[in-house]
Write a structure and sequence with these properties.
single chain, alpha+beta, Alpha-Beta Plaits, 2 domains, four-stranded antiparallel beta sheet, 6 helices, globular
């Protein structure tokens, strides 16, 4: 299965989240990437696959369990660096400028991270999703200052347009010890 698209549903109910995962897997040819509880009693289901299949799966779950939906997305042609960043397997060994984007929701953060890495020549370090974060999420990225600034602004705009931006920051010359704290 080609993984060129991501879909996510973020739910207020754990039971509804598990039901949504089942619906998504039964109605479409998609791969389950993450299905788990997240802080503040929410549940998230993240799937991958071809765009039409992912869209169909997300739509099917939303149509059947709309009362518990916090947020959803389908990202067609997701940037390939998003997958390792979600699993915490970044290949970043050198910290140049450091960009951080923080969101109130998992869904908006992943959308913002995708927009950020598509906007400029940066490397994404990590996407951290709602665990021990009070339901918030954040991503970190690195590169030259101008590129990081452009990427952070692009990603933050996507999140801010949904009213879910907590903060965005660019640190031009971060101490190298910060990288070891992130990965």
């Amino acid at each position: 299965m080609e993984m060129n698209s991501l879909g996510l549903i973020e739910m207020t109910s754990i039971a509804a989240g598990m039901q949504a995962a089942d619906i998504m897997l039964k109605t479409s040819q998609v791969e389950l990437i993450l299905s788990r509880t997240i802080c503040s009693g929410k549940y998230m289901v993240l799937i991958g696959g071809e765009v039409a299949e992912v869209q169909s799966a997300v739509d099917a779950a939303v149509n059947q369990i709309d009362f518990a939906v916090i947020d959803t997305f389908v990202i067609p042609h997701v940037h390939p660096d998003i997958f390792p960043a979600l699993s915490g397997h970044s290949n970043v060994n050198l910290l140049e400028a450091l960009g951080i984007i923080e969101s109130f929701s998992v869904a908006s953060l992943i959308e913002g991270a995708d927009a950020a890495v598509k906007a400029a020549n940066v490397k994404i370090i990590e996407i951290r999703l709602a665990m021990a974060l009070g339901g918030k999420a954040f991503c970190t990225l690195t590169g030259e200052v101008a590129a990081v600034t452009s990427a952070v602004d692009s990603g933050a705009k996507v999140i801010a347009d949904k009213g879910l931006l907590v903060n965005k920051i660019v640190i031009p010359q971060p101490r190298p010890e910060l990288l070891s704290e992130m990965i």
